[in-house]
Amino acid sequence: MVREDGKRNFALREDSGDESSVFSGNTPRQAALKAARRLEPASSEDEADRTTIQLREKGTDKVHIYEGWAWQETAPDDSPDWMPGDITEANVSKQGIEHLEE
Q1: Which range marks the domain in which residue 69 is found?
Q2: How far is the C-alpha of 50 from the C-alpha of 64, rounded, in Å?
Q3: What is the Cα–Cα distance from 10 to 62, expressed in whole angstroms?
Q4: How far apart are CA 53 and CA 99, in angstroms?
Q5: What are the phi and psi torsion angles at 73 (to 5°)?
Q6: CA-CA distance, 15 to 29, in Å (whole number)?
Q7: Would you say 31 and 24 are in contact if contact means Cβ atoms under 8 Å apart?
Q8: Is 44 within the bounds of a domain?
Q9: Looking at the domain assignment, is residue 3 inside a domain?
Q10: Number of folded domains in the chain?
Q11: What is the pTM of this model?
Q12: 44-80 b/e with 16+ CB inside 10 Å = b?
């Protein structure tokens, strides 16, 4: 379901079918990137473990499946004072869409 501001809500699904968190975004990829940033970050992108992320679009039976990974990087030199020295970066790769049959 699309909100008035154009954003959609996506529930993070576990393998058991439980939905633990909700992420919003204009696209499923935007929500998947937010979910990937919560993964345990590796020391570099090359060493990051890839994890399957399943996001069910609220109000539909569509489950968007992504492979996500996260890593630590040093904040840029022009970062604001409140930003920590190390930041978590993330990336995702779409694997497909499934439809629930519940």
Answers
A1: 8-95
A2: 16
A3: 10
A4: 15
A5: -140, 160
A6: 20
A7: yes
A8: yes
A9: no
A10: 1
A11: 0.89
A12: eeeebeeeebbbbbbeeeebbbbebbbbeeeeeeeee
Q: Of 74, 69, 75, 76, whose CA–CA distance to 46 is shortest?
A: 69
Q: Encode pLDDT of 77-90 as tens digits.
A: 999 999 998 999 99
Structure tokens at 102: 């519940």
Residue type, 99: H
**Measured distance CA(98)–CA(94) in Å, rounded:** 12
What Å distances lie between residue 86 and 12, 37, 39, 42, 80, CA to CA? 26, 13, 15, 12, 13
Over residues 44-80, the pLDDT tens digits come to: 999 999 999 999 999 999 999 999 999 999 999 999 9
C-alpha separations of 1 from 10, 11, 51, 70, 77 in Å:
10, 12, 26, 28, 40
